[in-house]
Write a structure and sequence with these properties.
Blueprint lengths: L7 E6 L5 H15 L6 E3 L8 H13 L4 E6 L5 H13 L4 E5 L16 H12 L4 E6 L10 H13 L4 E6 L3 H13 L6 E5 L5 H11 L5 H10 L3 H21 L4 E5 L5 H9 L3
Parallel strand pairs: 1-2, 1-8, 2-3, 3-4, 4-5, 5-6, 6-7, 7-8
Length: 279
């Protein structure tokens, strides 16, 4: 594969909730640090339920020489609380965030001061100027709550117009959906990098659950093949590695601006795909 110095290869993690999870993530991080990712993003729980865990995890990454990037979710949050979060990140020298609307915790009705991620991006710019590089989410297969593809594209454009620098997509297994979305964005005058999100396949049950929850298409041929393997985890892993490596290789060959791996706090699959791609 031809190398492109402008491409960004990054990793995503979630803040662990238990002492065992913390130790497991530290071991994972030591393994994945060898890949020299451009940055490591850390997710943010519904309604800010893991806010402190996000910062703590990001700072651990930073202390080990990695670029830790916190996710910021605005749903259920006030302007005051988010201004405080941004100030904390600035005080630690963090210059990159992923700005998301997020989901309301179940049983909660108060959406807070922000309804859309575009409002969050505009707020970050008003509060901090150009301090942060802001990534936002993109949905090649359209956000499950969007009324139409046109509405979804318009919502994405509002985030970019509000000041986002680049975007990371929801994971997908249909490359045509990604390229169609990129073409639509170009036609709408959107020129920021749109980095494909890559989900390694470790389990049929987990992937089916994630896909049903987030609206990502789970192609029937992949679903059928994984189901046919039953409990044969070795075959599931081997098939998943082939599928995801081929997908990522094809995306890079056509000019994707990088790849963002959803690691699920595991090292082996992401490392194998990364090495197969020659990154």
């Amino acid at each position: 594969m031809t190398s492109n110095p402008n491409r960004m290869f990054s990793l995503e993690f979630f803040p662990p909730r238990t002492p065992e999870g913390i130790e497991k993530l530290r071991a994972t991080r030591r393994q994945l640090a060898q890949l020299k990712p451009a940055f490591c993003s850390v997710t943010f729980g519904a309604g800010g339920s893991t806010r402190d865990g996000t910062l703590q995890t990001v700072l651990e990454f930073c202390n080990e020489g990695l670029d830790g990037v916190p996710h910021i979710s605005c749903i259920g949050a006030s302007r005051e609380s988010l201004a405080e979060v941004l100030a904390r990140y600035q005080s630690h020298g963090i210059r990159h965030v992923v700005a998301l609307r997020g989901d309301l915790p179940s049983g909660t009705v108060d959406a807070g001061d922000f309804e859309f991620a575009s409002e969050l991006v505009a707020f970050i710019r008003r509060e901090t100027g150009d301090w942060f590089h802001i990534d936002v989410a993109a949905y090649p297969e359209y956000h499950p709550q969007a009324r139409s593809p046109q509405d979804d594209l318009a919502a994405f454009k509002r985030k970019i117009d509000a000041g986002a620098n680049s975007a990371i997509t929801q994971y997908f297994y249909n490359a045509d959906a990604y390229w169609h979305f990129v073409d639509q964005c170009a036609a709408a005058g959107i020129s920021v990098p749109i980095v494909p999100g890559i989900m390694p396949i470790s389990s049929f049950v987990k992937l089916a659950r994630f896909s049903d929850a987030c609206g990502a298409e789970f192609p029937r041929w992949i679903r059928s093949k994984l189901q046919a393997f039953g409990d044969d985890n070795v075959s599931i892993r081997a098939f998943g590695l082939d599928v995801v490596t081929d997908l990522a290789d094809g995306l890079l060959a056509r000019g994707a601006p990088g790849l963002h791996f959803y690691t699920l706090n595991l090292a082996s699959l992401t490392t194998t795909i990364w090495q197969r791609l020659g990154l």
